[in-house]
Amino acid sequence: MLLKFYKNRFKCCQITLLIFFATTVWGQEQTAGHGNNSNFSIGMAFVSSDPVYINTNRSARLIPFLSFESTNLRLNLREGATYKAIVEKDYSIEVSLLPNFQPYKSSDSISLDGMYRALTLDGSMAFSYSFKRGLDVNLEIATELSNQFEGHMADLSLSQFIPIFGIPCVLKGGAKWSDQNRAQYFYGVEEDEERIGRLAYEVGSIIIPYYSVNFFYSLDSDTILFANLNSKFLPSKVFNSPIVEKESSTNLVLGIGYSF
After folding, report:
1. The pLDDT of residue 166
2. What does the alpha-carbon distance between residue 128 and residue 137 come to, in Å, rounded to a whole number?
3. Which long-range contacts (CB under 8 A, 24 or more apart) does 7-16 make?
4. Cα separations (Å) of 220 from 71, 169, 225?
């Protein structure tokens, strides 16, 4: 009971920190003058997800979104709050508070019964360096702040901007490292989660390669169509988990956004 009380207090502190972070940088943006380009965006996205967990099916749903973006600040419900701390000609550094949505619910499958995973919060720092001809190298490091698994992550990737028939396209490929705590939270089975046919399983640290393809098409100065196709490839240490049945996952996002 006491442990639950302190965990709830910690979660409240994280929510307070997120609000403080967002309102602080919002204030900085407002006091910086009218020279900053800022806008709100609203829209709708169709999301087709391919879960890797056992006895779960591909899902499709429509998701509304609302975001705010200025020269140095980006806020939205899905990706949290990001502040561009340093912006130079060839490189930039960003700091972020990023939500990690539940990887699964125990109700998603009978094979996941009794396994609870919560929404968590990461604090991250990202570095990006731009070469010529639209090539960027990106490095992001993150640590979990919501006291659920206290794990760390590092993401190294290359992205290439390529206009295809006048339509902007960004190709991205990379690999994401997760330490043992993070990998265990998303793909492992704890001893107290054992069931008949589901033994405890320790994943260990992992590296997951991935790629994504992004398209953007402007209907007019305020309205944009966008599409994202992304895939990840799970190592054997993940695939051998009793709650995982797929070696790869591919997701699709199609949407429209309006800025004002």
Report:
1. 86
2. 6
3. 7/147, 10/146, 10/147, 11/146, 11/147, 14/121, 14/145, 14/146
4. 21, 18, 10
Q: How far apart are CA 25 and CA 125, in angstroms?
A: 16
Minimal CA–CA distance to 253: which of 66, 78, 63? 63
pTM: 0.83
User: What residue has token string 């190298």?
Assistant: 137
For the chain of 260 residues, list the mean pLDDT of each consecutive stretch of 10: 43 46 46 62 96 94 93 90 95 96 93 95 97 94 96 98 92 98 98 94 98 96 96 97 97 96
Q: How many CB atoms lie within 10 A of CB 14?
A: 16
Percent of the chain as helix, strand, coil, to the nearest 5? 20, 50, 30
3-state secondary structure of 139: strand
Q: What is the 3-state secondary structure (H, E, C) of 38-94?
A: CEEEEEEEEEEECCCECCCCCEEEEEEEEEEECCCEEEECCCEEEEEEEECCCEEEE
d(CA 54, CA 241): 10
Domains of the chain: 2-259 (2.40.160.40)
Residue with tokens 């190709």: 171
